[in-house]
Input
Amino acid sequence: MTCLRTGELVLFQGDSVTDCGRSRDNDALLGSGYAGMVAAQFSAAYPDINVRFLNRGISGNRSKDLVARWQNDCIDLKPNWVSVLIGINDTWRRYDRQDPTSTEDYAANCREIFRRTREEIDARLIILEPFVLPYPEDRKAWRVDLDPKIHALRELAVEFDAVYVPLDGLLAAASCRRASTVWSGDGVHPSAAGHAFIARQWLQAVNALR
Output
């Protein structure tokens, strides 16, 4: 069973992990990542339920970028469900450009887009946890920055009664069974198997709702 209904719109938002080559000209082309896999697998499993899926992920985005474009790329689209995966670039920019985002600013940015989503369009939130896997070696040091952001995001998920997909923990567990490089070659961008894993976790979390 699924809680998604005919006529509903599901919007995917995030950075490159969500973008994954999605078309800017054709909304039907959701990219080669988990967003497109979710749409394909859902449609195959529930051919009688006509749900529309949109992908507005933009490579390189941080939480502040979502705040800046939330009116055009979320509110104006009036989705019924909003799936958000954001945060790894808020961490990454600290290490490659010396341009950090504090946990407080990250949480404030996320709270703002979640608040607007609930108050202005009353859409249900699906929050995906940002993640980093321990390869290459330098990714291990990122936990100092990312872990507090994950904890803040979990608190926001409770505050906004969101569907929460704990990807960082789930992928860490998966990496105990298969090498982390199976799921991502750089610790951040999923492989095809990694995207399939995320799509599976997304569908399980959403379909578990009643």
About this structure: Strands lie at 9-14, 52-55, 81-85, 124-128, 163-165. The CA atoms of residues 65 and 109 lie 9 Å apart. Residues 9-207 form a domain with the Rossmann fold fold (CATH 3.40.50.1110).
